[in-house]
Amino acid sequence: MTKRAFTNGLLLAMETIRTHKMRAFLTVLGVIIGTGTIIGVAAILSGFDASMTSVLRSFGPNSIIVFKFPVGFHVGNMTPEERTRKSLTYDNVLHLRERCPACEDVSAMLFINNNIVNAKYMGNDMYDVNLLGVEEGYSRGSGQVDIHLGRFFTDEESHRRMPVAVIGADIEKGLYANMDPIGKTITVGGHEFLVIGTMLRPAASFFGDTDNRILLPYGTMQKMYPNARDNAIVVTAVNGKLPAALDEVRAILRIDRRVPYDKPDTFALSTAEQMVSDFHQITAMTFLVMAVLSSIGLLVGGIGVMNIMLVSVTERTFEIGIRKAIGARRGDILVQFLIEAAALTGLGGIIGIIFGWVIALVTRLVFPSLPASVPAWAAVSGIAVSVAVGLFFGIWPANKAARLDPVVALRYE
Fold it and tell me: Where exactly are the structural domains of the chain?
């Protein structure tokens, strides 16, 4: 097929679409919805993936989070053995500091599980705050502490169990609006603490748009909440020694927790890259499911294209007879109708991409922290799939047109 023949076929197809605009729009409505949905979902998942990847990597490439079961995206899939594991202890933290040469910093984190904690100052209240007991090393190794006012507490204050606290940006704004919170008290779960520092909201955080953290010294948390037993350990490896640190931490904890040599670990080590990899698997599966569901729209659109092309063949039978009578070959007729079907669904795909871009734009406006954007691969794939749908569902009508007998076609009225 020559370039000129292709161009003429495309122009003829566009003229046919222009002549029957409403019919063409209704025909490819399924393609528009299917493509737009896939593009919109890809944009949202792409933004969500970028946001969560930024959060996970904010812990640093050398950080290891140690907990009794995997941190991140496995909580709903825990085995019975994982659910019954004993919590890590502060002795585990001390042993890691003593015996792990590849570990630059080891910090404990104590939190209250399944318990809602409220905070207040004078007449102001904040509900369901995120209360954590941490050590001074947490401010260096977690990537989540950026002091705004005041200072972070010291290990000495933790050992002496001083009633001091460092609060997050939204706690500062909600309880101490238009005043300096440093030196003032805050009541948390019935206990009173002195505010010695405030934090800026992290650029990337598990806490999302709200920063309702209240950090207490580890020893103070133990004293005020003696029933708190869930410990996590944040380990920062020496630069370039993350694999060695992982091996050393695993060996030390297996000895501490008396795990037999032929049994699996009774704890979990999570790194930023491993959590990112787990999250990518989840988003990939989610996109696959959404793509399959959205392809129903493409299927409906394809059937609509096939039906309308069959109608078009019937309407243009006489025209086909004339073209064959003056020398058009079967292949010319076949290509003409395939180009028309592909042009129809291709335009539907372009409109669908615009629809998906609008979804991404609205998502960014409603959720500013979610950087939804249409990936280039999604836009190219959207057009390619739309054209492919037209070609696939246009084969039967095009073949029917190409096989018409010119004598019979010329007699058709």
Answer: 3-54+278-411, 86-266
